[in-house]
Amino acid sequence: xxxxxxxxxxxxxxxxxxxxxxxxxxxxxxxxxxxxxxxxxxxxxxxxxxxxxxxxxxxxxxxxxxxxxxxxxxxxxxxxxxxxxxxxxxxxxxxxxxxxxxxxxxxxxxxxxxxxxxxxxxxxxxxxxxxxxxxxxxxxxxxxxxxxxxxxxxxxxxxxxxxxxxxxxxxxxxxxxxxxxxxxxxxxxxxxxxxxxxxxxxxxxxxxxxxxxxxxxxxxxxxxxxxxxxxxxxxxxxxxxxxxxxxxxxxxxxxxxxxxxxxxxxxxxxxxxxxxxxxxxxxxxxxxxxxxxxxxxxxxxxxxxxxxxxxxxxxxxxxxxxxxxxxxxxxxxxxxxxxxxxxxxxxxxxxxxxxxxxxxxxxxxxxxxxxxxxxxxxxxxxxxxxxxxxxxxxxxxxxxxxxxxxxxxxxxxxxxxxxxxxxxxxxxxxxxxxxxxxxxxxxxxxxxxxxxxxxxxxxxxxxxxxxxxxxxxxxxxxxxxxxxxxxxxxxxxxxxxxxxxxxxxxxxxxxxxxxxxxxxxxxxxxxx
Length: 528
Ligand code: ME8
Prior knowledge:
Layout: E1 4-12, H1 20-38, E2 42-49, H2 54-63, H3 67-84, E3 91-94, H4 98-113, E4 117-127, E5 132-134, H5 136-139, E6 153-162, H6 168-176, E7 181-182, H7 184-195, E8 202-203, E9 205-206, E10 222-223, H8 225-230, H9 232-235, H10 245-252, E11 256-263, H11 267-281, E12 288-292, E13 295-297, E14 300-301, H12 312-319, H13 321-331, E15 338-339, H14 342-372, H15 385-406, H16 410-431, H17 433-436, H18 443-464, H19 472-478, H20 514-524
Parallel strand pairs: 1-2, 1-11, 2-3, 7-12, 11-12, 13-15
Antiparallel strand pairs: 4-5, 4-6, 6-8, 9-10, 13-14
Helix pairs in contact: 2-3, 7-11, 12-13, 13-14, 14-16, 14-18, 14-20, 15-16, 15-18, 16-18, 18-19
The protein binds ligand ME8.
Residues 10-13, 21-22, 24-25, 50, 229-230, 232, 262-263, 265-266, 294-295, 301-302 line the site of ligand ME8.
């Protein structure tokens, strides 16, 4: 396994306030980054905003502000949100930053000098909200954008073009890599929809608006917003600058694994054009492009332009950051679309967090206080068949959790942990400690039950730590685990809590009134 990881989210358009769709992707990456760091891998995590383009220019005009003022304002809302959601990104890149603009210009020049870019005339169908050009076949007889379903406009202008056929053989070699584009159906979609019908050259400059990166060779052109945006993954690492240590460490070095996480709506740009740009620049290709599904609303895809968004802010304020993080990655199975519903949101909090985790911790702590004066008994293996079975389950849960998280299957990994905790809850019922406590000859049995429960809670908390960033430290506090003991290396150490003193903490996840909270969340939906 590689020692270093570079993980990126798409850089979002600050053309409207962030919604839980953006929060989903960023949380997914954050969990991956935290998980890798928890296992002592070096992980550099990047997110940012994509601030150029016609749409931003138009929005700013409508509001009577400069495009820079416009993006400054919305970008600050994105950065505040990531802070509130405890996102652990190492950097935040904005495409209006000087360090980025230079890289775009340099990249354009390099591609031009390589003879990969030429000047031509563009006639095509353009979707302004998506900033995408489409061919006649793609827009169909109704002239509808295949991505967002809105009408497209015919556009003609002098443009630079990137020769997409030139690097196709190398691109196809990259496609052969195991799990490079993941899940696999996304790769097939690219092959069948775009590559096999014949890739057309890509228009990489525009002259019809000015809010973009001017091309040095011909300043009336600005770089096409996707060429501009994709370069963020390099510019944030100092590519081509004097300070390119991060680039060398996280991109150039074969020790590093480069991972892009994107939504299904932007697969084409990341799995066709981006690798081709990199090939033109003579730069190594990413190791993995993970394509996640989208969070839908009852009336289709949630989007800023449709105005059917759910903002994460009020949810965080009311239910806490852990509940929102948990809900997002539990509800959308990686690679599939999910649907936001207030009912499910409340149910997840009640069933998974309040019952399965919260209750388990509070019952266990209370019993250890009651039966053993608050001291966790020493762990003894294999006291009986049931304990043995639990020990095996713990080991297999850790193993499958690691395998699943490495492939970003966070939902499945969490479900495994939840099943383990569910099993522990059942174990309480089955072993009936309150009965064992009445029989002095069963003391060893009772000790074993308590030690097993405490250890399983420790394991569960550790595995959920990348998701439940606020509450897991409280669980470790309750178990009396010191900072050092919380290290991941202790996950297989059943004795980590021997003789530790438990503490009753606050209620971890208060149970919600379903009707009342569902109503409240419904009121937030569709709002700004
Ligand atoms: O496409 N459900 O920016 P964008 C889940 N600037 N994820 C969603 C989502 C939803 N309903 N809506 C958006 C852009 N996302 C470009 C990217 S990258 C070089 C440039 C997430 O603001 C998802 O990850 O439209 C999607 O790919 C991304 O936000 C698009 O954000």
